Amino acid sequence: MVEQITAMLGLLGVLSILCQWLGWKLRIPAILPLLICGLLVGPVFSVMDPDAIFGDLLFPIISLGVAVILFEGALTLNFSEIREHGRMVINLVTVGTLITWGVIASATHYIMGFEWTMAMLFGALVVVTGPTVIVPMLRSIRPKPQIASILRWEGIVIDPIGALLAVLVFEYIAVAASPTSHVLHSLFNMLAIGLGIGAACGYGIGLIIRRALVPHYLKNTMVLTIMLGAFVGSNLLQEESGLLTVTIMGIWLANMRGVDIADIIEFKETLTVLFISGLFILLAARLDSSALLHLGWQGVAVLLVVMFVARPLSVWICGIGCSLPRADKWFLSWLAPRGIVAAAVSSLFAIKLEAQGVDGAEKIVPLVFLIIIGTVVAQSLTAGTWARFLGVSAGSAQGFLIFGASKFARALAKVLLAKNVQVILADNNWDNIRLARMDNIPVYFGNPASEHAENSINMNGIGRLLVLSPYRQLNPLVTFHYQELLGKSKVFGLNNSEGSSARHQLSQAYQKRLCLFGESVSYARLATTMAKGGVIKSTNLTDNFTFEHFKQRYGEGALPLIYLQEGKVRLVTDSVTTLPVGIELISLLTSEALNEAQTIDDQKEELKQSEKQAKKTNGKESDKAAVKAASKKTA
């Protein structure tokens, strides 16, 4: 038996990573391969029976996994970021959540015959969308930046809000089902313990991080253990209060001033990917296919209400007073796929409610999975066509994500932003990010190849990556990550290999792609030029001032970088000998080139003034000669 459990755990890990890789490779939500895999190893081929294999351990595994998932989701709920992303997002995650919850709960009660409490629980479970489902869809659909921003931030923010709502409804049901406790008294205890311990632990962790009371290498482990300890301790004090505790902890940490949680989020992302993948396969493997089919037309009717009534009604009511065009609202009305959080939380609650003998608990999981399958499959297959039909697809993305916020990168970003070219600077050096923010340049602080960056960086309108950082170990990682995301032809880097040690030598295939601004251009050269007074300047090339004139003026001290032509932004990726007229050329000019050009301009101005003076002198002498000749003629 021990060997069987070990083998199943190993198989679960391998299948989890394989499904995540397939989702990444095919650019589809990972939930689809995870769902298919779980159904294949469970109901279809009966390779894995989670209940038989794990026995009494299954509930603790799911319980701890859901706690980690909710805590990680709550860490992304920063109130300042909600305010920054528009009135529509705020409306959707507040008023829209209540509307969706009410419509779905009512449909479940009247169509499925659920008791009102169970209908309200189901409605709370399926109000969440989640970035793990939305972000891959947006990558393939590429709608307008405003629409994509609304959908992405709605998914990030509504995850913990929806989970918190579901936890509160579940706790009410769990208490109401217990004949030994007074409902209101027990519910008050749950809320008090969840809110109190969650806030206290969140504040305590924040103080520890702010004052650096633990070494850096223990910080992530410390946060994880305290979170799990608070979860277990809350449940011991009052049953079912642990999920509320970890959610409040995450929200408190995310909004506490002076606390850097970037490393914690990245660490929790790794755990969350592992837990989400493993849990979803286990949950899908537990799914009874006959129970799914037994839902019949009533289940399909609830799915249709979710897709065609609840979501459009929510969007159009929330859109009142907003400046969104009608086409944007129609697109938002269609795209709202449900994700892994709904599946994980519903399965955990179903196990608990079934143990308490609550009527209808056995139908919760099949119905949630039906909503997940229906929304993800239908919307992922049709959203692209719907976007093109409505005319809300974004055009060719001309913007840049620049990894490295050095002085050169900041100067380049300022010039591009002045030309209405979208730019985001990413760096894990806080000083560089601080200086970029002072210049009002959009930034991301951290590793741009992390999952947190994938959910946080708004890539809409961004079509290319420029690797301009000095981090030789991190540059290849970022390069390869975005080659898969944007395509190999959209990622460019500098040739930083000269003088590197043997362990930093790069492959020839990678070296060939290090051609940005020319093979001889390195980070060191750009940094040195800027340190010596170099300037990034924009120059219009016309019939009267061609690229040949430009080279004559600035000589070898000019390095062409980018040029704008008829709304397109084109990179200079090698040494250029000629450029067309009618473009706006952005180049890096050395201080020597600028001084020489200024000297030439001064000389030309002096010559011009001398010519004017000579003409005046000649004119005066001519006038004198004419007067003298006229006097002689008169005499």
Query: How would you characterize the largest beta sheet?
Result: 5 strands, parallel
Number of strands: 9
Q: Hey, roughly how much beta strand do the residues contain?
A: 5-15%
Q: Calculate the terminal CA-CA distance, rounded to whole Å.
A: 137 Å
Low-confidence stretches: 498-505
- Biggest sheet strand order reads 3-2-1-4-5
Number of DSSP helices?
Answer: 27
What's the gyration radius in Å? Answer: 32 Å
| Percent in helix | 55-70%
Oligomer: single chain
Query: What structural class do the secondary elements suggest?
Result: alpha/beta
Q: How does the overall form come out from the CA principal axes?
A: elongated
Any overview of this molecule?
This protein is of the alpha/beta class and 635 residues long. It contains 27 helices and nine strands. It has helices at 2-26, 31-44, 50-54, 58-74, 79-84, 86-93, 95-112, 116-125, 131-141, 145-176, 183-210, 216-237, 242-254, 262-286, 289-294, 296-318, 326-334, 340-355, 364-390, 407-418, 430-438, 451-456, 475-486, 508-511, 523-531, 547-554, 591-634, and strands at residues 399-403, 423-427, 443-445, 462-467, 491-493, 535-541, 558-565, 568-571, 583-589. The strands form two sheets. It has a five-stranded parallel β-sheet, with helices on both faces. Strands 6-9-7-8 form a four-stranded antiparallel β-sheet, sandwiched between helices. The longest helix has 44 residues, at 591-634. The chain is elongated and about 125 Å long. The termini are far apart. Mean pLDDT is 82; it is low at 498-505.
